[in-house]
Each structure stands twice: as structure tokens, then as C-alpha cells.
Write a structure and sequence with these properties.
Blueprint lengths: L6 H15 L3 H8 L3 H9 L6 H11 L4 H4 L7 H4 L1 H10 L12 H17 L19 H17 L4
Amino acid sequence: MSSLGNKEIMAKNIQRYMDLKGKDRKEICNDLNFKYSTFSEWVSGNKYPRIDKIEIMANYFGINKADLVESPSLNQKSRSSSVPNLIEIIRNDSYTLAGRTPTPADRAYLSNMVDTYIDESSDQTIAAHRTDSPSVDLPEEALQSIEEFKNFVRAKYKKD
């Protein structure tokens, strides 16, 4: 069965981007002027939106239409679409670092990295690191949870 046009995949993708953006159904319906019942049918996987509605949602989430209609494992562009989302988060200061509010130095460093990335716009790897340990104040249980999450992400994006 093709993953393109699959209502269940569309529903999961819509929900994933809602979660990433921190929006619920009501907020999205208000923001995009969608009928709540219709949008709920899409999110539940009962109906499939028209292409114009898919485009509206893609623009709203800052992603490609393919990120909504295709399975993430088949759509390699979905990973690259996270860069604009990351840039938006950094620019709007809507993030925390290891559960704490970033310092002005953290913000300046990350903003500078974004500027460098945008200026160079090449296939370079840009990495950020800290000289102090942000996890020093975390309990052992939290550190274990971080390790488990890292292993989950590695397994999810493992190349076959």
C-alpha cells in the first residue's frame, strides 16, 4: 500500500506537528479558520484533507506538504525541514537548555550559530557544546532518562 494519501499517516503527521508547535485542535482551527469537526476528522484519520488545506497546514507548521502526506521514514526532507523550525525557536527565545532558562551568553552563541548557518547555507555540520556540564544539577534518574531518549532517537533514525 502506498504511504502517499494514507489517512492514518496524515493524521499522525498532523498530530506530530501540532505537538511540536504546542497547539491543540481548537487553536489550529481558530488560527487557520478550519471547522473544528472537519479538522478533527483529519486528526482522527477518518477523512483526508483537500490539497489546499494541506498547503495551508504546511505553511502554518513551516514544513513541506510532503512532511504531512508521507511517512517520515520515506520523506528524507522532513529532517531538513526541522532546521527552519529550530531557527525559529532560537530566534524567538522559546526554548530551555537542560530544563533551565538560557543565559544571554547561551542565546548569543546559538544566535551566532544560526547566522553562520544561514550565511554559509552549505552542507556543513554545525555543533554546539558547552564547557560546563548542564546536567550537573540533574538527579541520576533524569540522566538515565536522557540516555534512554538518546538511544530511542538513535534507533529511530538508524540507517539500514
